[in-house]
C-alpha cells in the first residue's frame, strides 16, 4: 500500500469511523491517521458571529461560490503560512481529495473578489457529516465568511455534524467546542444514517 497516498475508498471508510489522515512533511509525505480525543465540532446552531463581523456580512464584500475551483482551494490551503513553513497537505493528500471531489464527496466553499480567489475551505460530506479539512484567506474575513455560508448550507441540507478536528483559539471564538471522542462517535453514527446532499 502507498503510505503517501491513501485510496479514496480507504479515506471514506476512515471518515465513517471517525478517523482522518494527515501527511508528515518531514517524512516525505507519509500518511498518519488521527482520531483525537477530545474532538472539535462546530454545533450547527451554535456559530458565534460578533457585531462587527455581522456588519461585514451585510456588506457582502465577496462573492461566495461552491465547488467552482476545488483544486485552487486545496492548493492555497497547502501554501506555507507565517510560523508554519511546512504543511500536512502533501501531494498525495491533494490527489486523493481531488479524486473525492470528482466523486462528489469533497467540496469547496470559495470567496471571490472579482476573479481572484481570496479565501476558502474544503472538506468531505458523508451522510449528515461534513468533515472540515482546512481553510485559508488572502483577504480579511474571507475564510470566516466561507464558514458562515458552509453552516447555512449544511443547515439547509439537513446535515447534523460539522467536524473541525482540532480546537484553536480562532475557532473557539466562532463557537467551536470540544467533546469526548465517545460522544463524537455516537453523533457520527447518527449523522451517517442521514441521506444528505451537499450540492
Automatic annotation (TrEMBL):
Catalytic activity: L-phenylalanyl-tRNA(Phe) + an N-terminal L-alpha-aminoacyl-[protein] = an N-terminal L-phenylalanyl-L-alpha-aminoacyl-[protein] + tRNA(Phe); N-terminal L-arginyl-[protein] + L-leucyl-tRNA(Leu) = N-terminal L-leucyl-L-arginyl-[protein] + tRNA(Leu) + H(+); N-terminal L-lysyl-[protein] + L-leucyl-tRNA(Leu) = N-terminal L-leucyl-L-lysyl-[protein] + tRNA(Leu) + H(+)
The family this protein is said to belong to: Belongs to the L/F-transferase family.
Molecular function (Gene Ontology), one example: leucyl-tRNA--protein transferase activity
Task of the protein: Functions in the N-end rule pathway of protein degradation where it conjugates Leu, Phe and, less efficiently, Met from aminoacyl-tRNAs to the N-termini of proteins containing an N-terminal arginine or lysine.
GO biological process: one example: protein catabolic process
Subcellular location: Cytoplasm
Stored SUPFAM superfamilies: Acyl-CoA N-acyltransferases (Nat)
Listed EC numbers: 2.3.2.6
Pfam families per record: Leu_Phe_trans
Name of the protein described by the UniProt record: Leucyl/phenylalanyl-tRNA--protein transferase
InterPro entries named among the record's database cross-references: Acyl_CoA_acyltransferase (IPR016181), Leu/Phe-tRNA_Trfase (IPR004616), Leu/Phe-tRNA_Trfase_C (IPR042203), Leu/Phe-tRNA_Trfase_N (IPR042221)
Organism: Lujinxingia vulgaris
A cellular component annotation (GO) from this entry: cytoplasm
Top-level class of the enzyme under EC nomenclature: transferase
NCBIfam families, per database record: aat
Keywords, in A-Z order: Acyltransferase, Cytoplasm, Transferase
